[in-house]
């Protein structure tokens, strides 16, 4: 059902946790299944220095969170804002159709965290 | 890695004695039991021997057993068959909100064709109130369909009391006994059941065979029209190897019932108590005592069931997050939902269905592995990290 990459990220999720005094915090809840993703950012000179996440959800949701975090660490805020949910799913080698909505949280939660950072630093 | 199978409510392995009994009927004894020649006669005798074994397990006459392809077919035949045959008497059916989809979707189909269906609620243990069932009866009620045991929680309904109510009001009573057969005593006479569905693959027979008990005198319109098989109640050439296997599985279930139930319930209880002790903020879904001996449905707050199942699977343990038929669909179980379980608890529900082959060592292994899985997932969960704040808010 899941690709090896999904299983790898689900089994050994990268960047799980919380950043104390994070520069930006965002979250997203899936209206269809109740999965929830919370993203914490550390930003330095417009670059995402660190990302941590907490996720309540299925294997696909956890793997998507992990992959999202790997994709944006070291990237500029604009590059992170350009990340799409489809790109997260593609980077995982695809997800089963009934599980695509789970990956739809990852980039959205990240974007919420960036928005929060931008609002507090405006 | 030792593989452990604890999903016997979804399906069971074919028992060796069943397999051995079936094999000759694929090659040596292949005649059509409806044929008059020697090849048909010898398989016809095997067919009737199997019918007697099924009948003995549920205490009915062999002529009251109709062979089907599965439990779902039995449920469909009972519900649609009675609805059509008794349409002249009324159009009202009573069932419950926690039935298997084979029953619920048969009822929904009939609703589109002019029937009215009452879906009775259950309490927090998944238990049905018989007085509310009796209150739902109208002069148009022609069928009551209530499962013997719930497939997700194992909760056992008070079938004998429901049977008495149905008999009192002269209404046909169908029960989906797919999960109950071979796990608890099933006596159609004592329970005053009129129709009862059985599935072979839940009791060590192969997939693709089942049976429907139809009390003598109950009218039934067939679903499958064709030849005269099964006294015109179900056409189609018999799945003879499967039927022979079902007969042997029923015979074994009859002989083993008490011992197997005691052994499984002892293991199930140890698993349940061990998990509840090791994992705070967990709960059992289902009735504490009126429950199948093999079934444990348990929730662990703040995490999601599919993630638990994946981790269990990676360590060789097969369990389920509810009805196997529902596992590809989004949303929580209709059974747990009907019980009014908190949504987050409901989302984490895991079902263990112990079976004939499980051992104490299997229970030990789950008890060793599962608490660590829950801890790992809770460490990732935002709800778990926020629970203290949530509790404080709730208490303020």
From TrEMBL, chain A:
Pfam families named among the record's database cross-references: NifU_N
Molecular function via GO: iron ion binding; iron-sulfur cluster binding
NIF system FeS cluster assembly NifU N-terminal domain ranges (all copies): 1-121
InterPro entries given in the database record: NIF_FeS_clus_asmbl_NifU-like, NIF_FeS_clus_asmbl_NifU_N
Listed Gene3D superfamilies: 3.90.1010.10
Coiled-coil residue spans: none
GO terms of biological process kind: iron-sulfur cluster assembly
Tree of life domain: Bacteria
Protein name, entry field: NifU-like domain protein
Organism: Syntrophotalea carbinolica (strain DSM 2380 / NBRC 103641 / GraBd1)
Automatic annotation (TrEMBL), chain B:
Reactions it catalyzes: (sulfur carrier)-H + L-cysteine = (sulfur carrier)-SH + L-alanine
Modified residues (N6-(pyridoxal phosphate)lysine): 202
Residues reported to bind pyridoxal 5'-phosphate: 71-72, 151, 179, 199-201, 237
Residues of the active site: 325 (cysteine persulfide intermediate)
GO CC field: L-cysteine desulfurase complex
Cofactor: pyridoxal 5'-phosphate
GO molecular function, a single term: metal ion binding
Pathway: Cofactor biosynthesis; iron-sulfur cluster biosynthesis
InterPro entries associated with the record: Aminotrans_V_dom (IPR000192), Aminotrans_V_PyrdxlP_BS (IPR020578), Cys_deSase_IscS (IPR010240), Cys_deSase_NifS_bac/arc (IPR017772), Cysteine_dSase (IPR016454), PyrdxlP-dep_Trfase (IPR015424), PyrdxlP-dep_Trfase_major (IPR015421), PyrdxlP-dep_Trfase_small (IPR015422)
Keyword list, A-Z: 2Fe-2S, Cytoplasm, Iron, Iron-sulfur, Metal-binding, Pyridoxal phosphate, Transferase
EC number in record: 2.8.1.7
Domain of life: Bacteria
Amino-acid positions noted as binding [2Fe-2S] cluster in the UniProt annotation, renumbered to this chain: 325
Domain Aminotransferase class V: 4-366
Gene Ontology BP term (one): amino acid metabolic process
Keyword flag Transmembrane helix: no
Assembly behavior: Homodimer. Forms a heterotetramer with IscU, interacts with other sulfur acceptors.
Assigned protein family: Belongs to the class-V pyridoxal-phosphate-dependent aminotransferase family. NifS/IscS subfamily.
Primary role: Catalyzes the removal of elemental sulfur atoms from cysteine to produce alanine. Seems to participate in the biosynthesis of the nitrogenase metalloclusters by providing the inorganic sulfur required for the Fe-S core formation.
Protein's name according to its UniProt entry: Cysteine desulfurase IscS
């Amino acid at each position: 059902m899941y690709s090896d990459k999904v299983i790898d990220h689900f089994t050994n999720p990268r960047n799980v946790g919380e950043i104390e005094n994070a520069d930006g915090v965002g979250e997203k809840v899936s209206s269809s299944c109740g999965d929830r993703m919370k993203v914490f950012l550390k930003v330095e000179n417009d670059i995402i220095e660190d990302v941590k996440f907490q996720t309540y959800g299925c294997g696909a949701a956890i793997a998507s969170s992990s992959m999202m975090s790997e994709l944006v660490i070291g990237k500029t805020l604009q590059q992170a804002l350009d990340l799409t949910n489809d790109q997260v799913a593609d980077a995982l080698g695809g997800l089963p159709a009934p599980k695509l909505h789970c990956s739809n949280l990852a980039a959205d939660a990240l974007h919420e965290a960036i928005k929060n950072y931008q609002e507090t630093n405006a | 890695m030792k593989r452990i199978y604890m999903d016997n409510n979804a399906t069971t392995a074919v028992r060796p004695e069943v397999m051995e009994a079936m094999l000759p009927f694929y090659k040596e004894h292949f005649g059509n039991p409806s044929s008059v020649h020697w090849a048909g006669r010898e398989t016809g005798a095997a067919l009737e021997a199997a019918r007697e074994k099924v009948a003995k397990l549920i205490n009915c006459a062999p002529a009251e057993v109709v062979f089907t392809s599965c439990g779902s077919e039995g449920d469909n035949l009972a519900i649609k068959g009675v609805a059509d045959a008794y349409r002249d008497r009324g159009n009202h059916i009573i069932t419950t909100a926690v039935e298997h989809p084979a029953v619920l979707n048969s009822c929904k189909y009939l609703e589109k064709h002019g029937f009215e269906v009452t879906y009775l609620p259950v309490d927090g243990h998944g238990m049905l109130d018989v007085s509310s069932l009796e209150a739902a009866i109208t002069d148009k009620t022609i069928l009551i369909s209530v499962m013997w045991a719930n497939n997700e929680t194992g909760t056992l309904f008070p079938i004998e009391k429901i049977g008495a109510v149905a008999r009192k009001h002269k209404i046909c009573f169908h029960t989906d006994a797919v999960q109950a057969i071979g796990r608890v005593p099933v006596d159609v006479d004592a329970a005053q059941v009129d129709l009862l569905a059985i599935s072979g693959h839940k009791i060590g027979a192969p997939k693709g065979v089942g049976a429907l008990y139809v009390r003598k005198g109950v009218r039934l319109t067939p679903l499958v029209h064709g030849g005269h098989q099964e006294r015109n109640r179900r056409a189609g050439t018999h799945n003879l190897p499967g039927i022979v296997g079902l007969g042997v599985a029923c015979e074994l279930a009859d002989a083993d019932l008490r011992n197997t139930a005691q052994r499984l319930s002892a293991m199930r209880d140890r698993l349940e108590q061990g998990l509840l002790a090791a994992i705070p903020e967990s709960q059992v879904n289902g009735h504490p005592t009126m429950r199948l001996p093999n079934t444990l449905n348990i929730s662990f707050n703040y995490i999601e069931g599919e993630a638990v199942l994946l981790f269990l699977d990676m360590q060789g343990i097969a369990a389920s997050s509810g009805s196997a038929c529902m596992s590809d669909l989004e949303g929580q179980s209709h059974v747990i939902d009907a019980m009014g379980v908190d949504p987050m608890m409901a989302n984490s529900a895991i079902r263990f269905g112990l079976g004939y082959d499980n051992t104490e060592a299997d229970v030990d292994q789950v008890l060793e592995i599962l608490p660590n899985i829950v801890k790992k997932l809770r460490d990732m969960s935002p709800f778990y990290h926020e629970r203290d704040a949530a509790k404080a808010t709730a208490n303020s």
